[in-house]
Design a protein that fits this description.
Blueprint (H helix, E strand, L loop, with lengths): L2 H24 L33 E2 L11 E2 H12 L25 H45 L1 H10 L2 H7 L2 H11 L2 H11 L8 H6 L27 H22 L6 H32 L8 H52 L1
Antiparallel strand pairs: 1-2
Helix pairs in contact: 3-4, 3-6, 6-9, 7-10, 9-10
């Protein structure tokens, strides 16, 4: 029997039981014959909707405190309903959906050996999540150690890095190497560009006497409006939100980028570690300056945007112009593709003529 049918019939059993309780409360006013024998009540299975007349051989059971005709249910039907509720766990407690009485379920003995196997299976199911979590943590830990060792070799040089790790205590390596990727990720989460950008925006009208900063942080000569602005001047509103994947990738790639910057721009520095530090510092500064410039440009763009009146002139000037540009670009792409196909067809035609001439000469 499908699961949906059993759920529906369990709900109908609850509704029928509620009706029985209501009718029993109303029947207290009427006189009832005490000679009615409980064994002669009509039995009605709330799972399969069958009565005792439909199947006189099937065993019946009264598993709960429900009253009336719906207190009876086929033993086999109730077993199927309990199987769907237990979902493979025979020790799960099941209650009646109406009166919430706990069903008394007796499991026959399987023998000592089968019971041992069952307990081992239960223990394995309970330990599996912990073992999986431990394996994941250990994998992350050893990956962090490996990344830390590679970073040490990359920043200090192969010979010096190997010598440092060989002379260090093992416990020191096990504790210090995993902290390298953690420190890189934490440092990557510190967004110093936003702090500098807010500081410069708060003083944007006093920095015009510094040409370099004025170029890096373009300021407008627009007066402050009397109404509230959507983007206040002291807020870096256009900074991007934190991205976990971007922070993770940027932190792990920083040692490699620092090494490349150091070897490219600081060749005169002989010490590998100092050269890598200078390269990383230069990369962070250049990237931060570019990010500050870009964010301020976006801030000014959002601040100076306007919403135009929906007039025919504005439609013709802006909407239709953008549409015509898109159409022109598409037409140009189609024409370019057609020209390329025509050139290919012309080349194929010339090649066919050459082959035909060669065949004619060979026949002669």
């Amino acid at each position: 029997m499908p699961s949906n049918d059993l759920e529906t019939r369990a709900f109908e059993h609850s509704e029928n039981e509620r009706i029985v309780h209501d009718s029993s409360g109303a029947s207290n006013v009427q006189l009832q014959s005490p000679e009615v024998d409980e064994e002669q009540e009509e039995r009605y299975c709330w799972v399969c909707f069958a009565t005792e007349e439909d199947d006189k051989i099937a065993p019946w059971v009264q598993p709960c405190n429900c009253r009336g005709a719906t207190k009876w249910v086929h033993q086999s039907c109730l077993k199927r309903w309990i199987d769907e509720k237990q979902k493979g766990n025979p020790y799960k407690k099941i209650n009646c959906p109406q009166c919430q009485t706990k069903y008394i379920i007796i499991l026959p003995s399987m023998g000592s050996f089968a019971y041992l196997l069952e307990r081992l299976d239960i223990i394995a199911n309970q330990l599996s999540p912990g073992v999986a979590a431990g394996a994941i943590v250990c994998s992350i830990y050893w990956s962090a150690i490996t990344f830390g060792a590679v970073t040490v070799i990359q920043t200090t040089g192969l010979e010096r890095g190997l010598s440092m790790m060989e002379n260090a205590e093992p416990i020191v390596l096990l504790l210090c190497l995993p902290t390298i990727p953690v420190a890189l990720i934490i440092g990557r989460m510190f967004r110093w560009e936003d702090i500098v950008l807010r500081f410069l925006q708060n003083r944007q009208f006093s920095i015009r006497k510094y040409p370099v900063i004025s170029f890096m942080l373009p300021v407008t000569d627009e007066p402050n409006p009397s109404y509230p602005e959507p983007f206040p001047n002291n807020t870096a509103s256009t900074s991007e939100p934190l991205s976990v994947i971007r922070i993770f990738c940027g932190a792990l790639l920083l040692p490699t980028v620092s090494t490349i910057f150091g070897k490219t721009f600081f060749k005169s520095v002989k010490n590998d570690f100092h050269r890598t530090l200078l390269g990383g510092f230069a990369f962070i500064v250049v990237k931060g300056v570019l990010k500050i410039y870009f964010h301020q440009k976006k801030h000014n763009q959002a601040k100076l945007r306007r919403i135009l009146d929906y007039t025919q002139e504005n439609i013709r000037k802006y909407v239709n112009r953008n549409h015509s540009q898109a159409v022109n670009e598409r037409v140009a792409a189609i024409l370019s593709q057609a020209v390329q196909q025509a050139e290919v067809s012309r080349e194929e035609r010339d090649e066919a003529f050459i082959n035909l001439a060669a065949v004619g000469n060979s026949d002669v």
